[in-house]
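Deliverable D2.4 — example input (structure tokens):
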């Protein structure tokens, strides 16, 4: 591998300095190894040659046909000019068309010569037609066989003549060098034998040029396994807390605050999931080790109560607790909910945000120092501020769906004994991903909603349905319900988006003259925003027109409808967050996704997922499949950088756990990978991750 990594790609036959420059610029391919690890993203089956008479149905795959052209004709004028040919293989005929490069194509093709065609037939009126196929004279000796890799290319590459075909040729040249055949396998032979893994050199060959599907799958498995194994080794070795666990406060008591609240104040029975999670947290905080726990629970699953009861355990043991929220609105809402509950058991709570006045701030600082304030609620400013507490025992971070701030918890480690940390998130990160990115966080999941929640009926509607949709909103309003209308707002065309929002407000006011309409967007002054929100929360306004600012935490159980305008412009997890604002009280709630008629396949699929499920975990899994985990919201923010070429954390969950188990076992036997048979492994991990950020600094 070393030589492959250090040989400039320009030395490969067929490349040279010019092409090397383009490959480097466009695909970041600079060495033999880079090219070798540029894997096909799909494969064409070249083992079968189809008969024209067998072509049936629509949505057909790429097919190979072998035969002769019978006629060529040009048709159409100007931009619609095209070259049409009739192609026959003895079993039938099919039309072939070209819309550009007509002249050179016509000159290079001849009737009477036998050709191999590769193309995708589509139905055109009553016949099949293939546009712009790949055409080669057919020769038995050189006819392609097996599966052929297709590589991702950029326009810049094709413009410089590096086409799929050239790419295949370059890869073939590379595979023919002795460097590839002689590449050493970093995986220990014992592991390879145990897991039945193909040797690395074979896997590299078969992933580019598989003879059949089975070989391809074995090659993919081997390379995915290796990729995930290296990642897990890196995480477990460098990221996971080393050696002795961090000592922490021992909160073994459950005392008056907790019990009094549980038996006398709590109005509803906890769900089984809430109980289980509280037990997990309690056990953790009583262990003498510092708790570092991620609490996942879908929107509305009741994390706030869990947070509050966790704080009471800290109080019962004589410590203070703080709760941090990502926005001022959310912090204020937590304050409203929690102070009401706290009051009844004589617990003193304070709210500290950016807009807290100086005098109040001074009062709070004093109360925190003398211990009269037991629970402090605020924004992230808490952590950066010079806030001093007498004896902070627990920090709860409510990040809703933004889990980027977890690392800040480390700041608390300034204390001699760090407080326990509980991070709450509504982003249901699939378990495989959570395990992988949060190497050292324990994870608790509330996987059950409180009883009585009605799944929100989600529908897709188009512009032509608008009147009908508004009529429906009117019906709900007449029944005393409230409605959200959400507009997208993205930075790039913020101005246009704001205009759309303002126009939306106008239209809504005209359509519903008897109802009051509040509106908010992120660019409003905080005071105005607050005011508009309050109108809606207090039911003085019946309709709230808003951008995604409402995505975080607003709780209006009386709202039963949400209309999302231009729903195609929202990501899945965002849609799910938004939808979580309804279905919190009304007998029946609705989320209506307004979209344009023409949607790309991925977009339509995304919206259909919304109409089919209200389960946040399913939504998150789908989101990962559609976008790939590297792109997952928050993953970037969480500072975790890894680039998986082949594996998909959502789809390859089984390989992830296999690789993780094996990595754990190996590190148990050889924690520093010092054994001679692990040297190649250690070098490979270093080469892959050595230059990346120091993970151990994050958690
Ligand atoms: P989230 O997990 O989104 O933060 P919240 O904690 O805001 O959810 O809870 C949503 C609503 O559900 C709140 O009004 C809360 O009082 C209520 N709730 C929480 N737990 C239960 C329960 N076990 N039974 C009934 N209602 C509950
Ligand atoms: Mg919440």
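Example output (designed residues):
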């Amino acid at each position: 591998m070393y030589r492959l990594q250090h040989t400039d790609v320009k030395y490969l036959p067929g490349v040279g300095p010019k092409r090397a420059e383009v490959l480097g610029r466009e695909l970041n391919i600079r060495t033999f190894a880079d090219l070798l690890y540029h894997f096909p993203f799909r494969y064409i089956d070249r083992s079968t040659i189809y008969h024209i008479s067998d072509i049936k149905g629509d949505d057909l795959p790429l097919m190979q046909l072998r035969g002769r052209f019978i006629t060529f004709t040009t048709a159409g004028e100007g931009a619609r000019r095209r070259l049409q040919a009739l192609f026959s293989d003895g079993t039938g005929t099919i039309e072939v068309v070209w819309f550009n490069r007509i002249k050179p194509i016509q000159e290079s093709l001849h009737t009477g010569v036998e050709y191999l065609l590769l193309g995708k037939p589509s139905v055109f009126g009553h016949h099949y037609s293939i546009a712009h196929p790949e055409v080669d004279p057919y020769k038995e000796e050189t006819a392609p066989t097996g599966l052929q890799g297709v590589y991702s290319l950029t326009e810049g590459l094709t413009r410089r003549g590096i086409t799929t075909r050239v790419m295949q040729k370059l890869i073939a040249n590379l595979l023919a060098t002795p460097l590839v055949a002689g590449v050493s396998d970093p995986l220990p032979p014992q592991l390879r034998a145990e897991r039945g893994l193909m040797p690395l050199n074979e896997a590299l060959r078969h992933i580019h040029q598989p003879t059949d599907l089975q070989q391809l799958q074995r090659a993919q498995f081997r390379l995915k396994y290796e990729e995930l194994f290296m990642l897990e080794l890196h995480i477990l070795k460098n990221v996971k807390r080393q050696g002795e666990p961090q000592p922490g406060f021992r909160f073994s008591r459950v005392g008056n605050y907790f019990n009094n609240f549980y038996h006398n104040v709590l109005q509803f029975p906890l769900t089984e999931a809430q109980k289980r999670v509280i037990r997990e947290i309690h056990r953790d905080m009583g262990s003498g080790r510092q708790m570092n726990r991620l609490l996942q629970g879908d929107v509305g699953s009741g994390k706030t109560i869990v947070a509050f009861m966790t704080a009471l355990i800290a109080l019962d043991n004589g410590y203070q607790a703080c709760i941090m929220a990502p926005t001022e609105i959310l912090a204020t809402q937590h304050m409203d909910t929690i102070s009401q509950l706290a009051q009844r058991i004589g617990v003193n709570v304070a709210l500290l945000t950016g807009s807290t006045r100086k005098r109040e701030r001074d009062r709070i600082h004093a109360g925190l120092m003398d211990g009269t304030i037991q629970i402090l609620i605020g924004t992230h400013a808490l952590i950066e501020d010079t806030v001093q507490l007498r004896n902070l025992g627990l920090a709860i971070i409510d990040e809703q769906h933004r889990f980027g701030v977890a690392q800040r918890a480390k700041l608390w480690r300034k204390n001699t004994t760090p407080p326990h940390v509980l991070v709450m998130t509504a982003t249901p990160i699939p378990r495989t991903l959570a395990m992988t990115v949060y190497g050292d966080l324990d994870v608790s999941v509330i996987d059950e909603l409180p009883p009585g929640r009605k799944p929100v009926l989600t529908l897709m509607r188009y512009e032509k349905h608008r009147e009908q949709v508004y009529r429906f909103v009117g019906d709900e309003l007449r029944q005393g319900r409230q409605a959200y209308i959400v507009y997208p707002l993205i930075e790039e065309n913020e101005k246009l988006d704001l205009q759309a929002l303002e126009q939306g407000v106008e239209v809504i006011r005209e359509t519903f003259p008897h109802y009051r309409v509040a509106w908010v967007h992120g660019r409003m002054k905080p005071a105005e925003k607050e005011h508009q929100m309050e109108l809606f929360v207090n039911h003085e306004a019946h309709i709230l027109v808003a951008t995604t600012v409402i995505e975080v935490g607003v709780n209006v159980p009386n709202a039963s409808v949400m209309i999302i305008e231009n729903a195609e412009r929202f990501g899945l997890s965002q849609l799910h967050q938004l939808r979580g604002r309804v279905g919190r009280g009304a007998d029946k709630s609705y989320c209506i996704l307004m979209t344009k008629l023409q949607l790309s396949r991925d977009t339509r699929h995304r919206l259909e997922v919304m109409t089919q499920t209200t389960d946040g975990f399913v939504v998150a899994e789908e989101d990962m499949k559609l976008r790939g985990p590297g792109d997952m919201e928050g993953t970037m923010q969480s500072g975790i950088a890894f680039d998986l070429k082949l594996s998909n954390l959502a789809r390859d969950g089984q390989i992830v756990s296999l690789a993780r188990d094996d990595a754990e076992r190996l590190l148990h036997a050889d924690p520093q990978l010092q054994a001679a048979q692990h040297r190649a492994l250690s070098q490979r991990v270093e080469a892959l991750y050595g230059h990346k950020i120091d993970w151990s600094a994050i958690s």
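The pocket of magnesium ion (ligand 2) is lined by residues 303-304, 553 (CB under 6 Å).
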